[in-house]
Specification:
Helix content of chain A: 40-55%
CATH architecture of the largest domain in chain B: 3-Layer(aba) Sandwich
Number of domains of chain A: 2
Number of helices of chain B: 34
Largest interface: A-B, 38 and 44 residues
Helix content of chain B: 25-40%
CATH class of the largest domain in chain B: Alpha Beta
Number of strands of chain A: 8
Shape of chain B: elongated
Structural class of chain A: alpha+beta
Oligomer: heterodimer
Radius of gyration of chain A: 19 Å
Distance between the termini of chain A: 41 Å
Largest sheet of chain B: 6 strands, mixed
Distance between the termini of chain B: 53 Å
Structural class of chain B: alpha/beta
Strand content of chain A: 15-25%
Radius of gyration of chain B: 35 Å
Chain lengths: 300, 964
């Protein structure tokens, strides 16, 4: 997923201590432990006009934190600021902890928290069966399509989830991890969308099997995410494993469960990144479809 | 040395001005600085302080500075400019900010909350607009009449949005703190708050215990009283019950009216989620006890509430309570059972100054005045409050301690608050105060120190039994989906089905990422930036002086919205066609001796030069007088009947005189069925409409009546009806605006008619074509008739505030309003401001004249200037001004024309349908692009420029609407 254009090139090392500007922003609660912990060193992984990624030297997830601004996507590991994100470059030193994110001459404190894994509220299978086709139509007729060809691993994953077959689902998931171009490879986004949906929609619809599937898939994916894909994508997969999603994804899920208008949310999601939005949408559709399928099996 | 200035029409919000005043007063050598809007109260304050204040109105800025030397005064004045322009700059951008909430809603998210903090008399109007547009609103302002509050809340329920307020200072929506609110973690407890600081104490304690809050919905101080009946509280309760993130609801309030309490009790009994009530008062549990009930209900451990106690021995002596939060004050007073308590947030202390949570001055004074005993005070942290209260308090606290006074502080805040809870507590503790995060504990401690026996905290009541489970959020436990939305499932109880929103849909603002439209005090907008909440500011100015009550009355009219939609709909759907050319005497009610004229009705005595000249010419043309003197005598003697063209489905340009022998363009509205007429255009030079009446004028009129008119009548028989709407739309996209620039439209018209002219009247074809081609404005008359027929379709819709006519007679500028029948509302016609031809100048100009403003009435002319940038060569200004003129008009119109579109604005429809309420609220007047007539009859056109109708026409119309 590209949220900007080209990353900035490395700037010469500054010797004088620059003045620190204090800023405040809003953050996902998944970052609260990281921020409340004692100060730890970090480094800037990548810097784009609308998003800057920091990797913190820690063993627990989330390890990568995104500073975002403007129209950039509200990732589940994001700190949202107003104002520009100039003056950061990849490789810069940073510090995270004790309530502050320090990087690029800025010290950011969080003044608003949001929950990246909010409960969706109860929803019936009938209601889902009505809204899913609407999402389907919007996705199929959109110019934004998933990054990977259909068939192959994605088809296997979809079929596996429908049948509740752990073997197929996990095999396919392992094939998809890290597959495809971009900062967050297509395969990862598809998995992320699927993981979040199985868990949250499964819970909302009372389909225990979907949540069980989500647990196993999550375990498989997070086991070696670090070695199979980019650091940024690995952290996002860990978030998805816990049911934490970006706000655009959450908006579509709320749309599917009747809490807010579905169409504008779907269009907003599809516009994310190059193919990220479409990939996440594929994961959501597959997830809802699986929830419906598994729910029917449960009822039988 | 004194400096006193009045700056007319300059507006800044009161909180910003208070900061500027404080900043200036703090300068070296400055004794006193008052920078405020010149309300009666502020003028009195300045006069009492020894300043000599000239006459001013509440819409003007008052500057009064006193310094010891001239130099210091000068410096202070310079600093003032810097401060004021800094504030203006933070709003200054390339694109103008929206002037109304309506315009802002077009830019913002559909689920945005509107935050209203304008002076109380205007708050209702603004809130109505927000609710009408389908947005929930938080009204920070107070002094809103209770009847208006009820109207607002009833409408809100219909529209499926929530009114938080009036007098609501605290809310948390989707984690975003609005007004005075603390930084709390997101979680499962929802709060319905009729008390701001009560909600703050409750939520801060919950956060300190690690329990999060989903939303805090304020309902305003009066909501649970008998008149308002708990309207917002009940709606908020429904909304939180339907919100998936909320698992438990707390209602915080002073004891409600018994009837309301009963209704509330019923709603709670039906609730599937547990509801705890914290209805404070005599014999009720305190806020801390309520917080502890909540913790027990969600299964969280009750912590020891953080405190920094001291080991002072109780010394007895009087207890003095100095509070900023009303509910906290009440709670402390009840618990302590003794002592003299003052709520500095009460109205009597906040007139003309900021709330004590922002400005500590009065409390510090009171603290300094205490010489013995115990002082108990609250310090409330969070957004909107003083950024470093300990800094201002610590010196006073230390001084009090040194006088032997014990100081106890209730510090209401969370670890996440911007002021840094730990640092504030430490500082206050170091200066000698005992600090408690629980107000109840602080009050008990203060009582003990004052020599009262230690009291036990009241046991909290168990949560009321209700119809639902007591634990986690509904998981749709029954497999068939016990959905709580109104999707036709068997939902338990109808209370759940309303969900606080509209027709079974949940309250939009609770689900989406929080976004805000802010109107009023910029300090509240600053807190939003800190929280990275998307917000749109409205560049609000007070409405025209004296109109607040009338505006509120008209805004409250239940017919208004639908009536305006109907009126503008009819106007925009009109399909005018030119169907014929007829002799005036044959189709209009024009007996001999009667003349129609442009503008509202006028008598000879008051008529201007061009009007008089045209009437004289008309008399001569009709043979009613042998020469000009006789004509004048008869006109002055009242032997002639005059009436407005507008009363007879007619319009006329400039003097617009219509007499029986003139031939009229006949335009028919194929959609709504009406008909309208306009005279044929005489051309340029010495013409009747500019008041010329020489032989050549009369001769030409005769030719037009004997040759041109009948010929065109024949032509129309050949061509059939000519679609004027289509032609106007095309001309608009070719650079015309159809009032002062008609070249493309005239060309298109000639193109349509030329073959038929040749066919119908072959002998006269060349003559007629030359006549028409000699005048770029030939189409204007057809355009005016088309506009007239469209505007007439919108007449007489009861309750509508839309303008259906704007017209000038050379002396008065008048308007007519759809909901006010045939009444005219007038004011003096101004002289257009623009460029003059040849050697003419402003002294040669006549006041504005003509019915051609009927074009602006339907969204053309000045309103479409962005489509005709070349016109700036004639009226002055530059292209950006032309675009700005059109853009400003969107603020005062009801709709965008579906067919008349402006390519340069992305084919946006022209702003159409002027609303009297919008004009008086924004003080933006319609802009008219017109020719300037010579003052002396017969001079002709002396220039072209822009003019606006007088505001008094609109205020008079508004006053009439308020009484209809």
């Amino acid at each position: 997923m590209a949220v900007g254009t080209r990353p900035r090139s490395r700037r010469p090392v500054q010797t004088a201590q620059p003045e620190v500007t204090y800023l405040s922003g809003a953050a996902a609660t998944s970052l609260r432990p990281l921020l409340e912990a004692p100060r730890r060193p970090a480094r800037v992984l990548a810097a784009f006009p609308l998003a800057v990624y920091l990797e913190v030297r820690t063993e627990t997830e989330p390890r990568v934190l995104a500073l975002v601004t403007g129209e950039a996507t509200r990732l589940p590991n994001a700190v949202v600021l107003t104002g520009s994100l100039e003056g950061f470059s990849a490789g810069d030193d940073a510090w995270v902890g004790d309530g502050v994110v320090e990087a690029g001459g800025r010290a950011v404190r969080v003044r608003r928290w949001w929950d990246p894994a909010p409960p969706l509220g109860p929803v019936s299978g009938t209601a889902l069966a009505r809204t899913l086709p609407v999402l389907h139509d919007i996705c199929l007729s959109s110019p934004r399509q998933p990054g990977l060809e259909s068939g192959g691993a994605s088809a296997l994953l979809s079929a596996g989830c429908h049948r509740g077959s752990l073997v197929d689902a996990i095999t396919a998931a392992e094939q998809l991890m890290g597959l495809g171009p971009g900062l967050t490879p297509s395969g990862d986004d598809m998995l992320a969308g699927l993981l979040v949906t199985l868990r949250s929609v499964g819970t909302a619809a009372g389909v225990g099997r979907a949540v069980w599937l989500a647990d196993w898939l999550a375990a498989a994916v997070t086991f070696d995410a670090r070695t199979r894909t980019t650091p940024i994508s690995a952290t996002l997969l860990h978030c998805a494993a816990r049911g934490e999603a970006g706000l655009e994804t959450l908006a579509v899920l709320r749309g599917l469960t009747g809490r807010q208008p579905l169409e504008p949310a779907a269009h907003r999601l599809l516009r994310l990144g190059h193919t990220s939005g479409a990939d996440l949408a594929w994961g959501i559709r597959t997830g809802v479809s699986a929830v419906l399928g598994l729910g029917e099996r449960d009822a039988e | 040395m004194n400096l006193v200035e009045i700056r007319p029409g300059v507006y800044h919000d009161s909180v910003s001005l208070m900061r500027v005043s404080q900043a200036l007063t703090g300068r070296p050598g400055v004794e006193l600085a008052i920078v405020a809007m010149a309300t009666a109260l502020n003028v009195e304050l300045a006069a009492d302080a020894g300043f000599d204040v000239p006459a001013a109105t509440a819409g003007d800025l008052l500057v009064a500075i006193r310094a010891t030397t001239d130099a210091e005064l000068h410096d202070a004045a310079a600093d003032l400019e810097r401060q004021l322009s800094a504030r203006a700059e933070t709003r200054g951008r390339e694109e103008a900010l929206p002037r109304t909430i309506r315009a802002a809603t077009r830019l913002a998210d559909p689920s945005a909350v509107v935050l209203v903090s304008v002076p109380g008399e205007h708050a209702f109007t603004e809130a109505m607009e927000a609710v009408d547009a389908g947005h929930s609103v938080m009204i920070f302002s107070d002094n809103v009449p209770v009847a208006r509050e009820v109207t607002l809340k009833d409408l809100a329920r219909e529209r499926g949005v929530l009114v938080m307020g009036p007098d609501c200072g605290t809310a948390v929506v989707g984690g975003a703190g609005l007004g005075f609110a603390n930084v709390v973690r997101p979680g499962a407890v929802g709060v319905v708050a009729a008390s701001g600081t009560g909600a703050q104490q409750l939520t801060t304690l919950l956060d300190l215990a690690g329990v999060g809050v989903s939303h805090v919905l304020g309902v305003g101080g009066r909501d649970l009283g008998a008149e308002v009946g708990g309207r917002s509280a009940l709606q908020a309760l429904d909304a939180l019950i339907a919100d998936p993130a909320t698992e438990l609801v707390v209602v915080v309030s002073k004891p409600p009216d018994p009837g309301v309490a009963a209704r509330l009790g019923e709603a709670i009994a039906k609730s599937p989620k547990p509801v705890i009530t914290a209805l404070l008062g005599e014999g009720q549990p305190d806020l801390t006890a309520a917080a502890e009930s909540v913790l027990r209900a969600v299964g969280a451990a009750i912590p020891v509430w953080p405190s920094w106690p001291g080991n002072t021995e109780p010394g007895g002596g009087p207890l003095r309570g100095l509070y900023s939060g009303g509910t906290l004050c009440t709670e402390a007073r009840l618990i302590a059972g003794t002592g003299d308590f003052t709520d500095f947030g009460d109205d009597e202390y906040t007139v003309g100054r900021a709330h004590p949570m922002i400005d500590p001055a009065l409390r510090l004074e009171a603290l300094d005045a205490v010489t013995e005993g115990v002082v108990l005070l609250d310090v409330v942290l969070g957004h909107g409050s003083d950024p470093d209260p300990a800094a201002s308090l610590s010196a006073a606290v230390a001084a009090a301690k040194s006088r032997g006074v014990s100081v106890v502080v209730a510090l209401v805040g969370t670890e996440g608050d911007p002021q840094n809870l730990q640092a504030q507590a430490a500082r206050l503790f170091e200066s000698g105060a005992e600090v408690y995060t629980s107000n109840a504990e602080a009050a008990r401690r203060a009582a003990v120190l004052a020599g009262m026996p230690a009291s036990e905290p009241r046991p909290a009541t168990r949560p009321k039994p209700n119809a639902g489970e007591t634990s986690a959020a509904g998981t749709g436990a029954a497999g068939s989906g016990a959905a709580l939305n109104g999707g036709g499932a068997e939902a338990p109880g109808e209370a759940a089905a309303s969900q606080g929103g509209w027709a079974g849909h949940p309250l939009a603002m609770l689900s989406a990422e929080p976004s805000v439209i802010s109107v009023g005090a910029s300090i509240l907008a600053e807190a939003l930036d800190q929280q990275a909440v998307v917000h749109t500011s409205v560049d609000w100015r007070p409405p025209v002086q004296g109109m607040a009550a009338d505006l509120a009355a008209v805004m409250a009219d239940p017919r208004r919205k639908a009536a305006n939609e109907k009126a503008v709909g009819r106007m925009l759907s009109a399909r005018p066609h030119l169907v014929g050319v007829r002799r005036a005497g044959d189709v209009l009610d024009l007996p001999k001796g009667t003349f129609f004229h442009a503008g509202p009705p006028i008598e000879w005595e008051r008529a201007s030069g061009p009007m008089r000249g045209a009437l004289i010419g008309g008399m001569l043309f009709e043979g009613l007088a042998a020469d000009a003197e006789e004509a004048e005598r008869k006109l002055a003697g009242g032997e002639v009947t005059l009436d407005s063209c507008h009363h007879h489905r007619t319009v006329g340009p400039m003097a617009g005189v219509v007499s029986p022998s003139m031939w009229m363009l006949e335009v028919h509205d194929a959609e709504n069925g009406g008909t309208a007429y306009c005279s044929l255009n005489e051309g340029l030079g010495k013409v009747l409409r500019y008041g010329a009446y020489g032989p050549e004028v009369i001769e030409r009129l005769r030719w037009m009546g004997e040759v041109l008119g009948p010929a065109l009548a024949e032509v129309m028989k050949v061509t059939g009806p000519l679609d004027l709407r289509n032609l106007i739309a095309q001309a608009l996209q070719m650079g015309d605006e159809l009032h002062n620039r008609n070249r493309a439209a005239t060309s298109l018209m000639v193109r349509e008619l030329a073959p038929a002219i040749v066919d119908a009247v072959p002998n006269r074809a060349a003559e007629i074509l030359r006549f028409v081609n000699g005048n770029d404005h030939f189409f204007l008359n057809a355009g005016m008739a088309a506009a007239k027929v469209a505007a007439d379709a919108a007449r007489n819709v009861e309750g509508s505030s839309m303008v259906v006519a704007m017209a000038r007679n050379g002396t008065d500028f008048g308007i007519q309003v759809s909901g006010l029948g045939d009444r005219w509302f007038t004011g003096p016609a101004g002289v257009p401001d623009g460029l003059y031809l040849g050697a003419y100048g402003p002294d040669d100009a006549n006041p504005d004249i003509g019915d051609s403003t009927i074009t602006e009435t339907v969204g053309l002319g000045g309103f479409s200037m962005a489509a005709a940038p070349a016109i700036v060569r004639f009226v002055g200004g530059d292209v950006a001004d032309a675009v700005a003129a059109t853009t400003a008009m969107y603020e005062i119109t009801l709709a965008e024309h579906p067919v008349y579109q402006i390519p340069g604005l992305g084919f946006r429809g022209t702003p159409a349908g002027i609303d009297v309420t919008l004009v008086t609220r924004t003080s933006v007047l319609p802009v008219v692009n017109t020719g300037i007539a010579g003052r002396v009859a017969g001079t002709g056109q002396v220039g072209a420029g822009l003019v606006s109708p007088p505001m008094e026409a609109f205020t008079a119309a508004l006053a009439a609407l308020a009484r209809v």
